[in-house]
Amino acid sequence: MRTYDTDSITLEEVRDNVWEIPQSGEMNVPARVLASESLLEEISGDRTLQQLKNTTELPGITKYAVCMPDGHQGYGFPVGGVAGIDAETGCLSPGAVGYDVNCGVRMMRTNLTYDDLTGTETELVETLFEAIPCGLGGGGVLEVDRKTVDELLNAGVEWAVDAGYAVEEDLRRCEDEGRRPEATPDAVSQEAKDRGRSQIGSLGSGNHFLEVQRVTDVFDPEIADAYGLEPDQIVVLIHTGSRGLGHQVCTDYLAAIKQSHSELLDSLPDTELAAAPAGSELAASYYTAMCAAINFAWVNRQVVMHQTREVFETVFDRPWESMGMELLYDVAHNSAKLETHEIDGENRELYVHRKGSTRAFPAGREEIPETYRSVGQPVLIPGSMGTGSYVLCGGDAAMTETFGSTAHGAGRVMSRTQAKREFWGGDVQQELQDQQHIYVKADSGATIAEEAPDVYKDIDEVIAVSEALGIGKPVARTFPVCNIKG
């Protein structure tokens, strides 16, 4: 048996691309890293492996904790981490969901080709940047009153349909049809609501973006046809989350858990894993607040898409409907969800915590929109702004290997501080335009430096691992044309 040794952790190779930290000491289950050797080398460069091992001490965790091939250090729980925790005997951990509740991506397809866009890139990127607010703490397209915040926290994208920012078809092509019905607006603090009510329709900061892309490769023509994708087609990828509202929800409940469940907290190896016991009042309250924040994030991405449709109408001087600007799919990256999975031959209800991980259900699952059910759930995996992104299809092995999950992106290999030391935003921006014909506009040069292509893992290798393990099947590859960042 081959092993991989770090300073404090030894992993054993289970098979190609699967490495395990064996159960020992206080661990309730083993931990698994899904990675090639080169990706494992990058993953082991920060505290990811220690955080993954710590995760195995959460009460009620089943089977094993999992780290995806794009994994990197997060808050307590690694980004790229997945944990299936028993819904009766386990717990709910806000840190295992993350501060940006339902950070996620949606892809909108069009009937435009790359030739249709050629010559409009500067106008398009400038107009998108003007129409869609971005940047740290900034406001959004909408500023609503407190009553309206409650309405959209409860209804999700259904609110956007009623308000004229979505059409019915958008609902049917969104994970959970754009609404978590368990949401309870009263479980969300007024401070969280006030932070969010002026940020609807905004990207925020960090790695959030809106990217106009062209389809460069189709790997599975049959599934691509079901998804409405073809070579040279223009698509739009939107990546943002629940903004200040979701951040405040996480902050509020971490503080409440630390106060009310100190005994459980003291038993964990990292206070950032603070968790409320399943069945407790606080766990129930957090779950309904998290679901409300998830609904908020879906509305946020929906309004950004609405703005994008209007920009395309302006630039191309025709209705968005005539350009086929339809939602392909929207997936969440940071969430906990009640799901039924087979554990040791028995179906059990679990809180599946996904943090920087994408649900990847295979064909036949009733949770998948009917239009895609026969082929499998679309999985959207962004690369960096200088490399390709991928559309995958959920694989059968995901249900047995990863609680129905796969990667969510390329994954960072360099901190933002280090990136700003090594790259100059203006140089990165100019090189992307001159060498790759990618037009980038951001709130600041520092943002571009922080998001330079070289700060991310090799997206092609991340996808290759997903494909090799059968947890995500490549359907198409896209490449950036225009990008706006926070």
UniProtKB/TrEMBL annotation:
Region (Disordered): 173-204
Chain residues that bind GMP: 207-211, 333-334, 382-385, 389, 408-411, 485
GO molecular function: GTP binding; metal ion binding; RNA ligase (ATP) activity; RNA ligase (GTP) activity
Segments of skewed composition (Basic and acidic residues): 173-183
Cofactor list: Mn(2+)
Active site location: H408
Coiled coil: none
Example GO biological process: tRNA splicing, via endonucleolytic cleavage and ligation
UniProt EC number: 6.5.1.-
Keyword Manganese part of the UniProt annotation: yes
Record-listed Mn(2+) 1 binding positions: D100, H208
InterPro entries, per the entry: RtcB, RtcB-like_sf
Enzyme class: ligase
Catalytic reaction(s) noted: a 3'-end 3'-phospho-ribonucleotide-RNA + a 5'-end dephospho-ribonucleoside-RNA + GTP = a ribonucleotidyl-ribonucleotide-RNA + GMP + diphosphate; a 3'-end 2',3'-cyclophospho-ribonucleotide-RNA + a 5'-end dephospho-ribonucleoside-RNA + GTP + H2O = a ribonucleotidyl-ribonucleotide-RNA + GMP + diphosphate + H(+)
Cofactor binding remark: Binds 2 manganese ions per subunit.
Residues that, per the record, bind Mn(2+) 2: H239, H333
Pfam families, sorted: RtcB
Keywords: GTP-binding, Ligase, Manganese, Metal-binding, Nucleotide-binding
Family: Belongs to the RtcB family.
Annotated function: Essential for tRNA splicing and maturation. Acts by directly joining spliced tRNA halves to mature-sized tRNAs. Joins RNA with 2',3'-cyclic-phosphate or 3'-phosphate ends to RNA with 5'-hydroxy ends.
Subunit structure of this chain's protein: Monomer.
Entry protein name: tRNA-splicing ligase RtcB
Taxonomic source organism: Halocatena pleomorpha
Gene: rtcB
